[in-house]
Amino acid sequence: SAAARAAFARPRPRVDEARWLAGVAQLHALIDLSDGLVGDAGHVAAASGAQLHLEAGRVPVHDGAAGARGLDLALSGGEDYELLAVVPAGALDRHVEAFGARFDLPLTRVGRVEAGPAGVWVDGRPWKGGFDHFDTGREER
């Protein structure tokens, strides 16, 4: 779609949104999703030494990218420039409506953090991935 193409060509950093989130909740981590949700969640997991468990059914997928391919792009694509925030459980529940009204964006819980070896799980399965700027599309043997 033209809107999706424009968002890709001229991404808008979510600086105001990040500041707002920091003002209403204790942020344990906050990262922009330039390497895809799984890739950047992996950076958070590695830095914190924790497991991030994502629920695929809760991950927002653009209307123009519906279906399994759309979910794969939402999880592992790149250049999204949305935010992933890690906050205490329930810390943003009462702010969802205010966030939506102020920024015309949904605020969506996509998972949880658990103790354990660092990594990302999607629907209970370990998941590797994310956008790799240096991937040439060839597998090393």
Describe this structure in words.
The chain has 141 residues and is an alpha+beta fold. It contains 5 helices and 6 strands; from the N terminus they run ααβαβαβαβββ. Strand 5 and strand 6 form a beta hairpin. The protein is globular. The protein starts with a helix and ends in a 15-residue tail after the last strand.
Topology of this protein?
Layout: H1 2-9, H2 15-24, E1 29-32, H3 37-48, E2 50-54, H4 67-76, E3 83-86, H5 96-103, E4 111-115, E5 119-122, E6 125-126
Parallel strand pairs: 2-5
Antiparallel strand pairs: 1-3, 2-4, 5-6
Q: What strand line-up does the widest sheet have?
A: 4-2-5-6
What does the overall shape look like? Answer: globular
Distance between the termini: 38 Å
Chain-averaged pLDDT: 87
List keywords for this structure.
5 helices; four-stranded mixed β-sheet; globular; 34% helix; 141 residues; alpha+beta; two-stranded antiparallel sheet; single chain
Briefly characterize the structure.
The protein has 141 residues and is an alpha+beta fold. The chain has helices at residues 2-9, 15-24, 37-48, 67-76, 96-103, and strands at residues 29-32, 50-54, 83-86, 111-115, 119-122, 125-126. Strands 4-2-5-6 form a 4-stranded mixed sheet. A two-stranded antiparallel sheet has the order 1-3.
